[in-house]
Amino acid sequence: QDPSAVDDAILIRQAFRKLPEKYKEVLLLRFAEGLPFQEIANIQGCSLEAVKSLFRRAVAAIHKQVNENE
Questions:
Q1: Torsion-angle region of residue 34: left (phi > 0), alpha (psi -120 to 50) or beta?
Q2: What is the maximal distance between C-alpha atoms in the chain?
Q3: pLDDT per residue over 17-42, tens digit each?
Q4: Burial of residue 64, with CB atoms counted within 10 A of its CB: 0-12 exposed, 13-18 middle, 19 or more buried
Q5: Distance (Å, rounded) from C-alpha 52 to C-alpha 58?
Q6: How far apart are CA 52 and CA 47, in angstroms?
Q7: Which of 7, 24, 25, 48: CA 20 to 30 A from 57?
Q8: Residues of the chain with pLDDT > 90: what percent?
Q9: If we measure between CA atoms, which residue out of 49, 52, 45, 60 comes closest to residue 26?
Q10: How far is CA 28 from CA 1, 4, 42, in A?
Q11: Residue 3: per-residue pLDDT
């Protein structure tokens, strides 16, 4: 296994743990459950646009955290 890939995975997990719950939920529903954005919106009781915005913010927050720790 590539050591840099393992390091990246650790950094991503650490960044994920620091996210607000609303971001974590969107990421888990999208990636772990494989749900489409519309279904996530239905579950959360918000608009499709709101879910997409939360998703973008969550990914950006993880990206920022990972880049700061490299």
A1: left
A2: 41
A3: 999 999 999 999 999 999 999 999 99
A4: exposed
A5: 10
A6: 9
A7: 7
A8: 80
A9: 52
A10: 25, 24, 15
A11: 75
